[in-house]
Amino acid sequence: MIVPREYLPLVLGPGTHFDSLEDVDRVLPLLIRHWNTIARTLDQGDVYDLYLLKRRSHRLVGADWADAFMRGVDLRSEKWRALIDSKEHGEAILPMMTLAQEKDPELQPLMNPP
Description:
By secondary structure, the protein is mostly helical. It is built from six helices and no strands.
């Protein structure tokens, strides 16, 4: 379990603050409900479809999502280590790792060769 004080800076951006408790009371339940919807979907063995409909300039929104996913993995890297190191299932996380690296300027020449 990850508590809101750990993930909110990643979700909302560093330095984000709420002006009032009423704002917290509106936003936090929405985030938790979304989290629970995803968890329930996955627990039932279903696939949670991501809807990445908008493009921001030339960047792929999927890379942003994958980067955020990997930041979440980093919050509990010790819990993810068995999957990442697994010879049988480790490749399941490889697409997210690869897509997240599209945001890394040092890797851009590798991702988009001349």
